[in-house]
């Protein structure tokens, strides 16, 4: 229970003030444990960030797995997957950035993060392959991810607004998917 409480407190601090707001001492204070308690679970702040990113990647992977096995068409599933990623960027921008940062800190935590990222990546590519075919999945997967990542960044900085572009991220995602070639 303590580790989960520490992660929840760290996530709340991260959401409220970014990485600078997160210290292991403050995480401990927020959970009502001793100042040294967080250090029994996380070697340092970098390891704590890596674990937060790992958990987010795992949850996203679980969502992609659910979508891939659902009743939706390949295009509907891919759209929902991209919107799930965008939702993290919108609601938890600091966590979103951590998800795309090379893991550091404890080697075990870094390895777990890499595994979670690979799983999510593989699930995403399987969804893309259902539309464009396995030979072209990496190319179009990279294109889709780069575009979605750019949208998340533009939105978080206030540059992807209706008044300026007369479009939304959702409409752009629909356009990207519509432009994908079908499997030959």
**Separation of termini?**
51 Å
Work out the strand percent: under 5%
Within CATH, the superfamily of the largest domain carries the name Tetracycline Repressor, domain 2
Give the helix proportion (percent range).
over 70%
Global outline: globular
| Count of helical regions | 10
SSE series: HHHHHHHHHH
Largest sheet data: none
> What is the number of beta strands?
0
By CATH reckoning, the class of the largest domain would read Mainly Alpha
**Poorly predicted runs:** none
The figure for the number of domains is: 2
Rg result: 18 Å
CATH architecture descriptor of the largest domain: Orthogonal Bundle
Q: Which structural class is indicated by helix and strand composition?
A: mainly alpha
Structure description:
The protein is mostly helical. It has two domains: 1-41, Orthogonal Bundle (Arc Repressor Mutant, subunit A); 45-178, Tetracycline Repressor, domain 2. Helix content is 75%, strand content 0%. The chain is built from ten helices and no strands. The longest helix has 26 residues, at 107-132. The N and C termini lie far apart (51 Å).
Short description:
By secondary structure, this protein is mostly helical.
Itemize the secondary structure elements and their pairings:
Layout (H helix, E strand, L loop, with lengths): L1 H16 L6 H8 L5 H5 L3 H24 L5 H18 L1 H7 L7 H26 L4 H20 L5 H4 L3 H10 L6
Helix pairs in contact: 1-2, 4-5, 4-6, 4-7, 5-6, 5-7, 5-8, 5-10, 7-8, 8-10
Main attributes of the structure:
single chain; mainly alpha; 184 residues; 2 domains; 10 helices; Tetracycline Repressor, domain 2
């Amino acid at each position: 229970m303590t580790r989960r409480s520490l992660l929840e407190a760290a996530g709340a601090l991260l959401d409220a003030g970014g990485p600078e707001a997160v210290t292991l001492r403050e995480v401990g204070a927020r959970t009502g444990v001793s100042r040294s308690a967080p250090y029994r679970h996380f070697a340092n702040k970098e390891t704590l960030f890596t674990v937060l990113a790992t958990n987010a990647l795992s949850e996203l992977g679980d969502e992609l797995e659910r979508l891939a096995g659902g009743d939706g068409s390949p295009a509907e599933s891919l759209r929902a997957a991209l919107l799930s990623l965008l939702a993290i960027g919108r609601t938890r921008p600091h966590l979103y950035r951590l998800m795309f940062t090379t893991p550091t800190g404890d080697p075990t935590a870094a390895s777990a993060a890499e595994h979670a990222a690979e799983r999510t990546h593989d699930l995403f590519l399987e969804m893309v392959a259902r539309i464009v075919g396995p030979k072209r999945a990496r190319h179009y997967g990279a294109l889709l991810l780069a575009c979605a990542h750019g949208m998340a960044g533009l939105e978080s900085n206030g540059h992807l607004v209706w008044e300026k572009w007369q479009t939304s991220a959702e409409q752009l995602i629909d356009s990207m998917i519509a432009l994908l070639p079908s499997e030959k």
